[in-house]
Amino acid sequence: MSTLRQQFLQHVAQTSESPLLLEVSKAQGVFLFGPNGERYFDLISGISVSNVGHSNPYVVKAVQHQAADYMHLMVYGEYVQKPQVELASRLVTFLPQKLDSVYLVNSGSEAVEGALKLAKRYTGRYEIIAFRNAYHGSTHGAFSVMGCEEQKRNFRPLLPEIRFIEFNNTNDLEQISARTAAVIVEPIQGEAGIRIPDVGYLKKLREKCTQAGALLIFDEIQTGMGRTGSMFAFQHFGVIPDILLLAKAFGGGMPLGAFISSSEIMRSLTHNPILGHITTFGGHPVSCAAALAALNYLVDHKVVENVSTKGKIFVDILKNHPKVIGIRQIGLMMAIELGSFERVQALISFGLKNGFIVDWFLFCNTAVRIAPPLTISDDECKNAANLIFEGLNAIA
After folding, report:
1. Whether residues 230 and 344 fall in one domain
2. Which of its termini does the chain have fewer beta carbons within 10 Å around, N or C?
3. Which structural domain, as residue segments, surrounds residue 98?
4. 129 CB contacts (<8 Å, ≥6 apart)?
């Protein structure tokens, strides 16, 4: 009989020619466990998903209870489903008053798609401005606003009327005009290697969008739900978007996304035509129950308040290693710059053999990604950082 790994390679569609092939039998807290008892520090959280830790008992209990009551009932938006209502009502208590209407979807990519449609419908305009080295997902609309031509060229034609500008370049903001429906931006660029905005940059972007009548979309799919040391990254910068996007950690480990705006803007999807955006499984009751449990866990256990301190532990241990060129960090979202993809690959390989998992960035392959579950303890931060330090010692 073929092994599980052989069946994976034969029957599960592949996304690269060299998958990691890490076999996981269990996950708990900040650890993944292999079939023979191998233990790995998960220092990437499934790419910023497992913020409340793997197999969080509060989330597991919520999933079990909701699955026993009901799962899918009807396409989104027709029935009053308690998990959706409770999640949306709780979520908006942490948001500015103008972000009071939540459209629940399946994923980050769909949140982007919904936001782009909403912006076009509300403004009556077609041009979308995005940023070079931005990542927003892999569906056609989200792909269209991805800021990397190398990734996109073999899938064209994509959406028309997309214009790209440079992150942190204030001169480029002049390209926002009366033709622009929306500007979509990650307040902290993730796949570009944790690029943090210059002081005042997002405020200038906000001002320019307001002057031009363009909607400002913040993609917080990676940064949301406490990853940066505040519940949402926009809170660091004193800038409120017109549309906020969530996914990844939002679902507490279950598939869930959302685009959030004002009731006035969101209402434009209800008419001319009706069902301006529709989704069968968006806001799935079990996913919503998991998301509410995860949100409450973050708040009740004061998880977010300690994120910045934990991030500093990693920085303090790693910053003086001679192979570390620099560290870009906010909260538990870090890029350790090593200067070459070869060193990044070597550290990833070392980690898989020595009990920790790190990763690279899609548009910055010279830096290592560190983004552990936010529930990681101070001692676990120290232990994990010391393992990385040992790895840096061992690689060429």
Report:
1. no
2. N
3. 57-300
4. 162, 163, 164, 165, 175, 176, 180, 182, 183, 184, 214
